[in-house]
TrEMBL record:
Record GO terms (molecular function): isomerase activity
Range of residues in the leader sequence: none
InterPro entries reported for this sequence: Phenazine_PhzF-like
Gene Ontology cellular-component terms listed: cytoplasm
Domain of life: Bacteria
Organism: Flavobacterium gilvum
Active site residues of this protein: E46
Annotated protein name in UniProt: Phenazine biosynthesis protein PhzF
Similarity comment: Belongs to the PhzF family.
Length: 287
């Protein structure tokens, strides 16, 4: 069995930046075990598998896998897969797409060279004392932005949002594996456990996403799902409207740019993130 596949860089202003993604077509015959094996072989942050494709309805269904497990929702795989479908697979270029992932249907729109997704309504989970992060980090209390809480937020995948006061604190951040793992396992409400640190520095929004995989602390170059949670967090606590660019990956030499366009009206969160995708390669995978 042979599967066509594409490799792209997502949330990337140019090639060899942003977050890598492998997109596999014609994957409806694969079982979960095989998808997981292929994702582990690719070893990107995520790989996607297109299981249903309906060009006549501008729709598709996909499954998303990290090297270790399946995800219910993840932003850069949704953006990158949508770009591949609209620019490489469909015979005529489309501007809208309905992409279904395990949490449901995600509306997609392409405007110029940006692909945008509309996120689900957020859930704001527990607020944590900042002192709890000190034992597994090199942070001091003065490094936290005291105007905002540390809180777990989800729009499909959950992240603990951690506001820092300066770009220097974000850049110099260092975490200790055993105590971080213990804290995440004890405090996080879902099976997806990760920390999303951010700050406003030099008039820009900067962020870093750190998580544990294969018993190592890993850092993601660009995290769309975390960005939807951060946007919800900023709409709730910072401003009822936000249009900005989230700079992620700068400290690991994979600069990523995630565009924010959000608005909070009464209790409704209109959360949209967008990004550019760069085509890298295509090929054929033999199963």
């Amino acid at each position: 069995m042979k599967l066509p596949f594409y490799i792209v860089d997502v949330f990337a202003e140019e090639k060899y930046a942003g977050n890598q993604l492998a997109v596999f077509l014609d994957a409806k015959e694969l079982d979960s075990e095989m998808m997981q094996k292929i994702a582990r072989e690719i070893n990107f942050a995520e790989s996607t598998f297109i299981t249903v494709l309906q060009p006549e309805n501008n729709s598709a269904e996909i499954r998303i896998f990290t090297a270790e497990h399946e995800m219910k929702f993840a932003g850069h795989p949704v953006i990158g897969t949508s770009w591949v479908l609209m620019n490489k697979i469909f015979e005529s270029q489309r501007r809208t797409l309905k992409l279904t992932v395990p949490i449901g249907e995600i509306p997609i729109k392409q405007s110029g060279d940006l692909v945008w997704l509309q996120a689900a309504q957020p859930q704001f989970l527990d607020i944590f004392p900042k002192e709890g992060l000190l034992p597994f980090s090199n942070l001091s209390l003065s490094d936290f932005d005291s105007d905002f809480p540390v809180q777990e937020v989800t729009t499909g995948s959950a992240f603990v949002i951690v506001p820092l006061k300066s770009k220097k604190a974000l850049e110099n951040l260092n975490l200790e594996l055993p105590k971080m793992k213990e804290w995440l396992l004890f405090h996080c409400k879902t099976n997806h456990r990760a920390l999303y640190f951010y700050c406003f520095g030099e008039g820009k929004l900067y962020s870093r996403m750190l998580y544990i995989e294969s018993n190592q602390i890993m850092e993601d170059a660009a995290t769309g799902s975390a960005s939807t949670c951060l946007q919800a967090f900023l709409l709730k606590y910072h401003s009822a409207e936000i249009k900005t660019v989230n700079h992620q990956g700068d400290f690991i030499n994979r600069p990523s740019r995630i565009y924010f366009d959000g608005k909070l009206s009464e209790d409704y969160f209109d959360i949209k993130i967008g990004g550019k995708t760069q085509f890298i390669a295509k090929g054929e995978w033999e199963v």
